[in-house]
Specification:
The protein is mainly alpha-helical. The chain contains 9 helices and 2 strands; from the N terminus they run αβαααβααααα. The chain starts with a helix and ends in an 11-residue tail after the last helix.
Length: 256
């Protein structure tokens, strides 16, 4: 793949994300609280999450190794940050899950396809097709204002995401099967605080790296999570009532 084909790849991915964004307002992705038998065969949720998320970790590692960029700064730090997220998402998060829920195979396969493509996209943007001179300067790159802001947003977003997942996992006591409305942390302001954290995290990564591929990933994250946050918000209002949900927004505090 040359740079022109890579840019075409980014355009195609962006257009597909637009269709996904619109479609998800009409079709609820059938995992978690929206899983139904109509999605067909399903497997253990923990295994499905690991199999779905791990490919991007593997693809990114493989393409980093083949690229020859090695430990050059600042790209090596970008690589480590990306891998840190997916190390947690692939090999820690699934095994912290409680319960015996399942994920449709169709959802898992779609996730695998996207994650493979995203690994190629991010590796291309950082290791193979970055504009000449963009990452010159070594560690001094991190003194630039946009790099400081981006790194801060990445860390804050990851923290919000991890804390929000912790809140969700501890809504129930062992043996309890009731549904509860999360209300700790940023769940006081939005009904999908975990998604807000992920949006902040990847926006920070895009600002930090100044990579067009990273911005396409932000758009994909938005296109995938914002419609789902809307569906979750509506489900909570149906289940717990407007008074209980109150003025919480869907995913972006005070805005949406």
């Amino acid at each position: 793949m040359d740079v022109e084909k890579f840019h075409l790849f980014l355009i195609v991915m962006s257009v597909v994300a637009l269709f996904v964004f619109v479609a998800l307002y009409f079709v609820k992705a059938g995992y978690g609280m929206f899983r139904t038998s109509s999605w067909g065969l399903s497997i253990n949720n923990k295994l499905a999450w690991m199999l779905m998320e791990a490919p991007v970790f593997v693809v990114m590692f493989w393409l980093w190794g083949r690229s020859g960029v090695g430990f050059s700064m600042p790209v090596y730090v970008f690589f480590l940050l990306f891998q840190l997220h997916y190390l947690q998402r692939s090999f820690i998060f699934p095994f912290l899950m409680k319960g015996k829920s399942r994920m449709p195979l169709a959802i898992m396969v779609m996730g695998i396809v996207f994650n493979v493509l995203n690994g190629m996209m991010q590796a291309g943007g950082l290791f193979y097709f970055a504009p000449e001179g963009l990452y010159d300067g070594g560690m001094d790159y991190f003194l630039k204002p946009h790099a400081v802001a981006g790194l801060l947003l990445f860390v804050v977003g990851m923290g919000i995401n991890l804390h929000s997942d912790h809140v969700i996992r501890h809504l129930r006591r062992p043996g309890d099967t009731k549904h509860y409305l999360p209300a700790r942390g940023l769940y006081r302001y939005v009904t999908s605080a975990n998604y807000f954290g992920e949006l902040v995290e990847w926006t920070g990564f895009a600002i930090l790296t100044a990579s067009p591929a990273a911005w396409v990933f932000v758009w994909w994250t938005f296109a995938n999570l914002v419609p789902r946050a809307d569906a979750i918000h509506k489900r909570y209002r149906e289940e717990f009532g407007d008074e209980a949900v109150g003025g919480r927004k869907r995913v972006i505090p005070f805005i949406y």
